[in-house]
Every structure is written in C-alpha cells, then in structure tokens.
Amino acid sequence: MFPTPKLSKKALHKQVEGNSRIMRYIYGIRGTLRRIYSTYSSDFKKGPKWLPKQNSTPHYIPYGEDGSGFYSDNALGYYSIVKNAETMVMDAINSMEINPTQVFNIVDYGSADGGTSMPLFYQIVDKLSQTYGKDPPIHVTYEDQPVADFKSLFMRLHGLLSMPENPSYLMDFNNVYVSACGTSFFEQSFPNGFVNFGFSSTAMHWLSRWPCPLPDAVLHMVSSCVEARQQFAKQAAQDWELILLQRARELTPGGRMVIINCTTDEDGYFGGGRWDSGSVNVFQQLSSLWHTFALRGKITKEEFVNTNILAYWRSQEEMQAPFVNKNSRVRKAGLTLVSMETKPTPCAFQARWQREGGDARQHAKQFINMVRSWSNHAFYTGLSDRRPEEEKTAILESFFEEYETEVAAAPEKHGMEVMSSFLHIKRDQ
Questions:
Q1: Do the domain assignments include residue 34?
Q2: In a domain, 112, yes or no
Q3: I want to staple 294 with a disulfide (CB 3.0 to 4.6 A). Which of 284, 304, 342, 402 is the partner?
Q4: Is the dihedral of CA 205, 209, 212, 213 positive or negative?
Q5: Domain span at residue 184?
Q6: Whole-number Å distance between alpha carbons of 137 and 252
Q7: Among 343, 344, 362, which residue's Cα sits nearest to residue 353?
Q8: Total structural domains in the chain?
Q9: What is the pTM of this model?
C-alpha cells in the first residue's frame, strides 16, 4: 500500500475539476445503464425464485446528476421530519447498554444521498464521544439501492459539497468510520447481529414490486379504485413484515431502531396539503395534471394508467399489526414496538413563503425540485418505451414546468405537509 498524499481542499477541488471530462463519460454510461435497467426491469427479475433476490428492482431512480447533492439540497422539509425524531432517537441511544470496547454500528436505511440525516447523526456521534471519549469506534453505514447517489454522500462527508448548516461528523470527530451498502432493505443487508442502532426516515413506504395499475391516479391514496387500493395494501403488508424480519436478523440483541414512515391520521388524512383549508394537495395535483396531459393527447391513456408512484401510506394500525400478536413472525423474531407517535410536519417551503415571501418563480422552482426528486422516475417509467428519450424528456420538462407555473401563480396554496409515524423498536436480548 502506498501512502495517500494529503491535499488541501483547494487542491482536491482542482483534482475533481480535472477529472470532470472523465466523470461526464461515466455519467453517460451510468445513465444508459439506468435507462436499460428501467426498460428491461421485468426481464431482470426472471430467474431462480429466491424471494430476497426478486426484490432488487429499484423502486425509483434518483433525479439529478450524481455528485450534485440534488436530493438533500432540495429536501428542505425532510430535514424537519428528521429533526422531529431527535428526542425519540436520543432516548433510544440512552436506553442501550453500550460496550465501549466494541464497534458501535449505526445504519441509515434508505439514506438517499445522506444529507438529511447528517445533523442527527452528528448529535449521536457527539453524544457517544462525550460519554465514552475516543471509545467505542463508531461505524456508520448508509444503505440504499445500488443506483443511489452515494457520490454526493461521500463528497458531503469529506467537505467537497457545501454544507453551511450541516457539518460533517466524519471531519469533526476521531475514531469514526463510514461506508455504504447498495443492497435493498427488502433483503438482509448486513450479517446477523451487526447493527447496534438502525434509523430510517421516509423510505420504507416504497414497495418492492408493482401490485397493479391505478386507473385514475398516480398514487393509491388519491385513487377511487377500491380493488387497486386493496392490492397495494396487500403488497404493503407483505413488504412491511419482510422489512421487519430482515432488520430482526441484523439488529444485535438489545439493539434499537427508529423508523419514520409516511402514514395517515385518525381521519385518513395522508399529508400533501389539506383541500378543506384551501391548500392544493400535491398528490391530487400530480394526478390531475397528468390526466390533463392525457386529455390533451400529450400522453396516451395507457401511459396515464401505467404511471404509478410505487409507494404505500400505511395506517397506524397497519404499522402496529406485526407487533400486536405475540405469536406473529415479527415478535417471534425478537422485535418489540417500544413506542409510536404520529404527527404532521408542516411544509418548510410553504412556511418560508408565508414568513418571508420573495421571488414567487424561484420559490416555485425550489418546491418543484423537491417534488421531482422523488416523483420523476414514476412519470418517466409510465411513458411508453416506444418513445425516444428526447421525447420523454420533453414531456417531463413540460409537465413539471406547468406545475411550477401553477405554484408561482399562488405560492400560498401549494405545500407538502407530511404525516409521519415515528416508531421506536428494540431487539430483545
């Protein structure tokens, strides 16, 4: 092994710029592979019927250039959701019996590019460092799909992407180590007993496979088709049990996990904006505008039906179900639900507009970037494979530009309040 030369941040930036031509080539290859994988994903799933391996098809491809930090830069509201979990997370950490002579393994499941959880993980590392000094060694693993933007993750951690309000614990603390895992959380991602503390925010509502088409909407929550909603619910229940069983294997005895899931309140409200208060619901608006594109002939009826956001908002009862019966597979695997609370997180963009105002068009652009970061792939895959890539791109640009124009015309009406359940789970000794 040769020693790695120490470079200044300025020199590192020059090195990155010097490799830009090569990286653009790599981006092109990766983009092509993504399109091939998206187009032929059904063929990829053929083969031995081993359940974990059938769950590897990405539920969505991240939008934005690799290494740009697009997701976390535009996920203003998701920082607020994670912040709402701070008390529960620190209570979980404080309740654990930690052996300072062993590595303390933390995992962020469904981490995207890692930015939204970094302030929370900074607190965890700081707490452990204050309590135990330089011991124990802390190892943080970021888990997501193999197509996740891990490049942005490591550039953030090493200070190569600007984070003025989001410092890197990797740079500020010693004896901290970071890695990434590209194995889906529908599979067992780590060895038995590897994880001391697991965390996941707004990720496990994604489904492992497409249950059925939605004939009248792009999200099951705004569909009036009872049969389709039942199919989505059935798939979500199977996935939820599978996710928990995989985590039961990975958590060490006495380990803890905090999961933040999209949910509904007692009245069935699922977030996205309350129509009865004059707000425009994001999910209803996406469906309505896409339907308008079908009526105009910009997309076909078949493309509208095939455009589904591959996710499910579980009710509070659905999330608690695997823990209620002592004879359930999840309970027998050793998992116990310590506590659960449900609360809304107001839309950070809407709150900022109401507080500060500003340039309506710029505000709308930032809001749509947030929406597009998690929805773009659903609309892309809904379009026919017979369309050229340039045509698909033009349709999507036109679609999101129209939505942006509507937001700019009435910023006060558009927001994305998120309804979340926060679950504290422990692995029995």
A1: no
A2: yes
A3: 304
A4: positive
A5: 47-427
A6: 16
A7: 362
A8: 1
A9: 0.85
